[in-house]
Design brief:
The structure is a single chain. The chain is of the alpha/beta class and 285 residues long. The chain has 2 domains: 10-217, Metallo-beta-lactamase, Chain A; 218-283, Arc Repressor Mutant, subunit A. It has helices at 52-62, 83-90, 180-191, 209-232, 238-245, 254-270; strands at residues 10-13, 16-20, 33-37, 42-45, 67-72, 94-96, 121-122, 128-131, 134-140, 149-153, 158-162, 197-200, 236-237, 274-277, 280-283. A hairpin with a 2-residue loop joins strand 8 (128-131) and strand 9 (134-140).
Length: 285
């Protein structure tokens, strides 16, 4: 993305600066976007991978100003590992999403968990961290991960949406830590807010957030309907469903699609609409 090269601070508004990490992939798009909030003292949101060049870029962007908090939306390896070296340099506390039980991680298709992530302070719904002229308020948005948080900046009605709502694609929901029912409920929750703009962990700023969230809800409901229609034709394994649902999908993304379909199936199963039989699924009707 030539207009936003890695390591270069881009000022999005007076209180918000973005620095792109050099970790592009089929799952991260152009890379993880770290957001720096504040002017005199700062919060650093999702410092990203522990890449020395990216950490150096963040230190240049901080430019000697005090860091009040290192804030984390969730515990994936492309978002939180740089918390440790950044804390060692700045002395700032790590706050935000909870750490996790590795035994519950399960099989993952997207960026793996950061198993070393341990915050100094776990934030919950409506908890805040403040600085000179800014406040970040935690908004619980589980679904992509069980511990996912978004952070509202009420001074400018901006929302740092992490991977819950991205600017380039819908997010992966991968069981057991990812949960489709929780993800849908979190989207509905955002529909009830009046945020002006979303700054996601991947992709461009979202300037019509309500429209995008409405579209994401519709997309997931369409996928659910597609699954039910396929299963009404007879019991099927997930790979067969993927072949019919995601025509032309990049082969590198097939595992991620399979995890999201599984998340839909678990949600439908909890609602009594489908049954798992060995490696196949069928409807109850």
């Amino acid at each position: 993305m030539a207009e936003h090269p890695t390591g270069i601070p881009i000022q999005l508004e007076p209180l918000v600066t973005r620095v792109l990490a050099p970790n592009p992939s089929p799952y991260t798009y152009t890379g993880t976007q770290t957001h720096i909030v504040g002017m005199r003292d700062l919060a650093v949101i999702d410092p990203g991978p522990a890449d020395p060049g990216h950490i150096d870029a963040l230190i240049r962007a901080i430019d000697g100003r005090p860091v009040t908090a290192i804030v984390v939306t969730h515990h994936h390896r492309d978002h939180s590992p740089a918390t440790r070296p950044l804390q060692a340099i700045t002395g700032a506390p790590i706050v935000g999403a909870a750490s996790f039980d590795r035994a519950d991680a399960g099989t993952r298709a997207d960026a793996s968990f950061d198993v070393a992530y341990v915050p100094d302070r776990v934030m919950a719904e409506r908890d805040t961290v403040t600085g000179d002229g800014w406040t970040l308020e935690a908004i619980a948005t589980p679904g992509h991960t069980s511990n996912h948080l978004a952070f509202a900046l009420p001074q400018t009605r901006a929302l740092f949406s992490g991977d819950h709502v991205m600017g380039w694609s819908t997010t992966i929901v991968s069981p057991p830590d990812g949960d489709m029912a929780a993800y849908m409920a979190s989207l509905e929750k955002l529909m009830g807010r009046d945020d002006r703009v979303y700054y996601p962990g991947h992709g461009e700023a979202i300037e019509t957030p309500q429209r995008l969230v409405r579209g994401m809800l519709g997309h997931r409901k369409q996928r659910e309907g597609q699954i039910l229609r396929l299963l009404r034709d007879g019991a099927q394994p997930i790979p067969a469903m993927i072949g019919r649902m995601y025509v032309g999908l990049d082969a590198r993304l097939v595992p991620a699609a399979a995890r999201s379909v599984l998340a839909h199936l678990y949600d439908l199963q909890a609602r009594g609409l489908v049954i798992e039989e060995g490696e196949t699924w069928r409807t109850t009707a």
